[in-house]
Amino acid sequence: MEVIRCLLLLAVLFLAGAHGGEAQPLVPGLFTFGDSSVDVGNNDYLHTLIKADFPPYGRDFQGRVATGRFCNGKLATDITADTLGFTSYPPAYLSPEASGQNLLIGANFASAGSGYYDHTALMYHAISFTQQLEYFKEYQSKLAAVAGSSQAKSIVTGSLYIISFGASDFVQNYYINPLLFKTQTVDQFSDRLVSIFRNSVTQLYGMGARRVAVTTLPPLGCLPAAITLFGHGSSGCVSKLNSDSQRFNSKMSAAVDSLSKQYHDLKIAVFDIYTPLYSLVTSPESQGFTEAKRGCCGTGKVEFTVFLCNPKSVGTCSNATTYVFWDAVHPSEAANQVIADSLLTEGINLVT
Ligand SMILES: *[C@@H]1O[C@H](CO)[C@@H](O)[C@H](O)[C@H]1NC(C)=O
């Protein structure tokens, strides 16, 4: 792990030297598609119930501002952006700063409450995956206007694309929606999601993307909200939901293998969130954490969607650095650091 981090830092420094002291990121840009785990603030501009633009969200972020990130500090993808050598983060697509020169470092299209399945986004007034891809198309014409078409093309081809959906499709849709869980098995629903993923990668490839990373599902059964809602009073992880997550993840892995065989000039990898998060939840002390069963924010058991924590929530912890979860669904910045470290190993081939 440390070796890989050092190699990447060396690469960043080397590029800095080659460009006369001005640090150059390892890839020209970063594009993110997904749900609340990677939304950096598109939700601020939407009429949705799922928002994070008020304290205590962001209380450990630069400037202590609530940016719309569902975390006390940085998301795993922010930390990845740091490691790649970015000094400012690819802006959220709907924010005013996502214009002009900022377009040169990519864009974040993610939207809290979104999923692979467009119906999930519809339920939460979020930006669907289909719409996120439309926005990427729109972005490309804006970029060409700013950078010229040949530089725009090389940015699009050289950039890293991160796709992170699925958790909302299950926790905020499938498991609570009789129209889905009574008519489809978890396997059938998973197959449907993975097929949407495959089509979307094909579309992205068609639009010029050549470096794609897709995150796995986390251990859904270990999210504090899932334990509260589906744990029948037990405080342990809900094993049914964890095995659903693992089955979904193997299907996703198989799809990624087949895509990489299909498109020889496409670099594509799976970012495994499941393993590092499961290990944090099941043995927190060995990694310096003290609390893995409830989030820091509010009661830490259900605060998401209906009961988002807010400045008046009672029980918010004073220091989230030893908490695995920030709220009942999202990891803390400290846990995101652990997750991002493990992504480095899997991502090295994508960016070198
Ligand atoms: C939280 O605790 C960590 C060590 O446990 C400490 O380094 C950090 O300064 C604390 N942060 C705040 C805001 O108190």
UniProtKB/TrEMBL annotation:
Molecular function per GO: hydrolase activity, acting on ester bonds
Family matches, as Pfam families: Lipase_GDSL
Signal peptide from the UniProt entry: 1-23
Keywords assigned: Signal
Homology family: Belongs to the 'GDSL' lipolytic enzyme family.
Database matches in PANTHER family: GDSL ESTERASE/LIPASE EXL3, GDSL ESTERASE_LIPASE APG
Protein name (database record): GDSL esterase/lipase APG
Organism: Brachypodium distachyon (Purple false brome)
GN (gene name): LOC100823091
